[in-house]
Each structure stands twice: as C-alpha cells, then as structure tokens.
Write a structure and sequence with these properties.
mainly alpha
C-alpha cells in the first residue's frame, strides 16, 4: 500500500505554489509561432555570441598556440580545421585508422 500512501501525499501537495499542473495550463511545452519563425535568426545570433564569449575565445586562442597559429583567435573555423588536420596527420604517421578521413578538408 505504499502507492496509496504516496498518492495521498501527492494530493496534499495541492496547496504548494510550486506545484505544476499536468493539465496543460502551466505553459510548459507551449510553442509560440513567432518563436519558431525566428529560430534560425536566434541560432545565428547565438553563434555570434559564442564567438564573442571570453571563455570560447581563450580556448580557441590556446588551441591556436598549440598548432602554431598564434593570433588566430578571430578565426575559430581555421583553428579547428588545423587541429583536425594535425590529428589526422598524426594518426596516419602512427598507422592508426582515421575513421573520418576526408570528412574535413581545408
């Protein structure tokens, strides 16, 4: 009868203002048509914000220094492409199988 006791406890939680209704009145999961129309623009804006994020810039700058591209933090695609190229080249020299060979080319 543990389930019955738990159901009784859940019923007592109705006075709690943090309780969310499952009847669809809470607004959770409701999709606004205007919001879906601007998703593509939001994605581009979020990528622009990401490139300006200080932590991201520091990480790209550190990768650029590791691969010998000092000062290339403003070109994250070029830095990441060089990192992938060097990893693939190293794997080829070591005789390892490159799973995504040719997937990324500069």
């Amino acid at each position: 009868m543990v389930l019955y006791d738990r159901a009784a406890q859940i019923g007592d939680d109705d006075d709690d203002p943090d309780t969310v209704s499952d009847a669809g009145t809470s607004g959770v999961g409701v999709v606004d048509e205007e919001e879906t129309a601007g998703d593509e623009e939001d994605e581009v804006a979020s990528l622009d914000e990401l490139f300006c994020d200080e932590r991201f810039v520091r990480k790209i700058d550190a990768l650029a220094q590791l691969v010998g591209m000092d000062g290339a933090a403003c070109q994250p695609a070029a830095v990441l492409g060089e990192v992938v190229r060097l990893i693939q080249e190293t794997e080829r020299k070591n005789g390892r199988c490159v799973c995504a060979s040719g997937a990324v080319r500069s």
